[in-house]
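Quick one: Glycoside hydrolase family 76 protein from Sphingobacterium bambusae, structure tokens please.
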Amino acid sequence: MKKSMMIAMGSLLCFFICACNKAKSDGETMPPEDSNLATRSLTRAMEITDNALGAYFSGSGMTMARYYNPYTDNRSAEIGSVWMYTSAIEAVTAIMHSLEVEKEKGDATRYNEHFSRYEQELMKLYDGAEYYLGTFTLTSYTGTKEWTVYGVNRGNSKGGARVDGIENVYDDQMWLIREFLEAYKVTGNAEFLSKAEYLTAYVLDGWDCTIDANGNEVGGIAWGPGYATKHACSNGPMVSPLVWLHELYKGKSDQATRHYIDAGDRRTRKQEQMSKADYYLLYAKKIYDWQKQALLRADGVYDDMMGGCTPGSPQLEQIDGVNYRRSTTCRDRVGPAITYNSGTMLSGAADLYRVTNDAKYREDGTALANASFAYFAKKGVNVADYYTFDISGFRNWFNGVLMRGYVDFYPMHQASDAYIAAFQQNLDYAYENFFYKGLLPTNLLVGWNRDRGKNNTEGMFTFAFAAEYAVLSRYEHTK
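--- reply ---
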């Protein structure tokens, strides 16, 4: 390597290291540490979340700024999307779960002191989420119905958000379904279950149940009702919530209505009553199978979407004088591979194996766990003996979904412990070297930018780090 290049690289490294070390010398008081890893991780999750709630949110309506700079104490004027908003709900709920586990393990001190406080924060967040709600009428593959769902962007009043066309997407609803179910599990509040099932009905209304020439369902869920392309992110995230719903209703007599198309004439819209337990498990398997068939690559990880769709945009057709959405066939598998698209399928495999005991899900998950870590984790890129994950775009949040997949699959594949440890080590490295005003930098292994004005940090990344810490705490207690 040329000497000039070595000097330049050394200067660049110093640029970041100086800024990082400065973070701990600007009057920052570091909290006392706990030698127990599970306890320490939960402490850090709570600390980051508490600081982030104050930094990113404002007003009684819980308006979330997309960015916050701890060095300038400035919130961005740009408001976070509903997806970004959901990250705060995830962090709070994950902490509540971890507090419960800590209590179950014999220490109820923090549960008694903090659980109700986080429950109140959770209710405030869900109340604020209603600013993203809106109502529209949708014609799907089996009928026309009015729906009240979550729009991408926040409205000016509760229920006043735009949700027509491309203004709502199915994956946003899926992340909310997940968090509604997590909230139900940790609070027992039946309203959360009701909201989760309503949104689940909306998402499954987007399943392409049209019949191909061989008499099979075309399958797949488009990114949103205003799109033709079928994405990993609008399919994989739904598998685990559907399995959880199956478990909640297993052995009960509750019924659901399945809407489908006659495989014989490929035209007639039909419906049948099923037990909810069977209904939810049926679609968990359908969605899992579609994504595996359509998007699993030869190197063992998942591509991003199916494109090359016909028609290229949502179209309607008339059958017996009634409008329905036309079948959408997509032929081109499109990348890149992104961590969360493998992470959701890893969690899905774990959940499906747990309830079915079908060895194929264990085999799928084992292969995916190993392939995904080999593909996404790069050792020694930034710090010797630490694994670097791509953090471009929104990948900091995506990476947390992969980590959760490893945690979910660990009971079936204990070698995943080494993969999980990489995330623990990165978080701890950032906390111990770069922690500043209660927050972590976007790049956990490099740190803050020396130019203080360039440290705008995505709220969803901050809450993702907190949620990861909470999940890791729970994992250490229960593995």
